[in-house]
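Q: Can I see a sequence and its folded structure?
A: Here is a first one.
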Amino acid sequence: MSWWRTVLNLPPKGEHWSDQRRTKKPKGRPQNTAPEWWQHPDGPVSPTPRQAQGVAAQYSAPPPATGGVMAPPRRPQGPETPRTANQPPQHAAAPGQRPPERLRQRSAHGAHAAPQPPRGPVEPGQTPWATEPESSFSTWARRFFRGLVVAVLLLAAISGVRSWVRPTTGTNGGTVANQSGFPADEARSVATRYAVSYLNWDEGNPEARPAQISLDLAAGLDARAGWNGRGKQTANAAYPGEVKVDSGGVTAVVDVRVQVRPFIKQARGWAGQAYSWQRVAVPVARASSRVVASGPPTFVADERVALPDNMPDAGVPDDDLAAATLRDAQAFFSAYAESDAKVEAVAAPGAAIRSLNGAVKLGELKDWQVFTGNDDERRATGAVTWKGTGDTTLDQTYTLTLRRTVAADGAQRWQVAAVG
């Protein structure tokens, strides 16, 4: 049988585990299958050379100092029969034979332990000992540990023992492994503050800009970020947009829109110019503890884009219902500009609509459209002109939800249930 079958405790080639059936332990006393001398009344069976050598060594060795050995089993005696006067006793030994004797048994508790009761006579065809089969747990444990040793050896051969003794360690402690979830919210916060710091400069205080940029710029990079130290500009508001993450999941580019105000140097000081919006792309990277800006941002051009072709259809106008609800729509927009109490008086029951609290006043309802739908709710649009401070007016278009209500007297009305 090959060595690897021996290591894995596998049966010989051509055999199966099912062929090696485990012998069941017999119930009661185990049966003897070997011929014994007491099974031959005519005389003892001639022992084999190995058996004769073992018996000779047993009787030639001196007896131990304490304890003893188990004597050879004696021939079981049957029930006593009446003896005559001339019949010798059954236990008398023939001339030239050693009379049977009962030696002391070795006790597991020591030589001074209390004697145990003698064992009963051995039945014919039964051996005075029993073989205990190995437990299934021991067999399973031996096979498991052998397989574990083979697996470890194979793993060591594949990966190399040197990698276990001296594993390779990276020299850069800031290396970040690729992960699926990029912190987009943190990237927007860092990019927004960095963009504001980048677009702020003042030659009268040149150290303020690098100090603010250093809050978000990665360590080791130039905090001046390309500024020559001349001029003045302020950045007031910034709004982050899309975060484009690269395939590696470590770097990204954040789209930020910043409102700036440049200044022009005059004889008496700096003169502020008109506000404008600038769009920048801020590169960021995910470090071991946070997101940092990985370099100066770049300007991106803003352009107007047309509406998509698959815009949802507004629906079919219901001119009759629009004409019937025109006065109610005017009353709602007037109340919507003034207070919550007036809105609650004209809105549908249960509607939660907050007013503008006097920020503007209704100038006029320029257009009112109600679209077809079910008998309980309809969608409507209203184009209004708001009056602001002074002579300022502003046109806006609202989308509303109308709900049909029934009064106690049975009268039906369409009232505004939601705005937007």
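Q: Show me another, different protein.
A: A second, unrelated one:
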Amino acid sequence: MEIITKNDRNSNERTVCSLKEIEKRKIVEHNDLITSVAKMDKTPLKIFELAVSCIDTENLPKDNTIYLSKEELFTFFDVSDNGKHTRFKEAIKVMQKEAFFEIREEAGKGFKFKSIVPIPYVEWTDYHDEVKIEFHREIMPYLIELKKNFTQYALSDVMELNSKYSIILYKWLSMNYNQYEHYSAKGGRRVNQIESYRNPSITVKELREITDTIHEYKDMSNFTKRVLDNSLKEINHHTSFNVTYEKVKKGRSIDSIVFHIEKKRMADDNSYKLDDRAYQEDKARKAETEDMLTVQALKSPYTKLLMEHFLLSYLDLTDTKILSGLQAHVYPLYDELKEARGLKGVETHLSYVASKQEGYSKRNVVKYLKTAIEGYLPTVALQDLEQPERANYKKPRSLEEVAKDFLPDYQNETSEAEKEELRRLKAEIDKKLRGEGL
């Protein structure tokens, strides 16, 4: 992630933002803005994103003002008909009167909420190509001089998205994937934590909040189609991401969504590939992380158990994707079950899972095992509430281990004199037990 530095904001030079090199243009926003609720439809949202991409972070805009070309603005929206000027004016009107962000920030013991109209002033003429856009002063801290908790993504990706939901979801996925790339390169997080950024989870409630659909698409199948399926179809087709998802149930209801993000390979233009340093670094990081997880999986006792229950084959042991997937997503859940029921509890679970496995699930054994254990752990927790004696299973400890809790310096050492005295006492006790010397 690059750091945005403060610079001279008093330049009087007026530069009209050009879209000629749109592939190189980036948008940078604070994560609080990424997770805010955008109370606007796609057109005002895309105008805002376009305007943000015109902020020169090396020469910050005077009076929070940038200038756009109308013709290039129409190009961005792929508008060429005679009514484009009228529609542009309508979009500006909506943006100023109805479009705003609801931002939630952590503050002390709770949260602070803000409602900000991001672009309160727009000026243009019918005889000139230039459009003046002024950002509200309250939105600027989320756009400039950001040193942490920010996300950067490509304007060209947003340009092709035609749904408000796909834009919001793309920004949220970018926020998580940026953290995956950052911590993969810099460290500071455990392997499982890093992988969670590439496979982020969000509750349905939170997803409805950021997409502003709390009161819309009440039926889950309709919500899935409109907000998830349609958006991901656009994202996968037009952006640098390939994204899949799975639903996680809690009881009978869908509680959360887990996304799986992969970055696309670049086009076969060799010069373009060589310039994509981020892609090359990401590829190397993925390979290194996958290798590390594979080694850990091969050493894990759970791999042996899966083999014994015929849930893994010897051929699977040569597949790094399967082994790294198990280590990242399945084995941590087995650790939870082991803590509650011991290793025997894990074996019992695997025996049941093996008996229920269908042929189709063998094609994606990681997903099958992950789904199975995620469905079983809530049952274990419920059993522990109903039968406390089953909770927190732990292997009985030896007398020596218990003694060490009370005698930290305890050592199992006996002197020769003490051994001789013990042998004498034992001999006397044996005589009495045999009735001798009475």
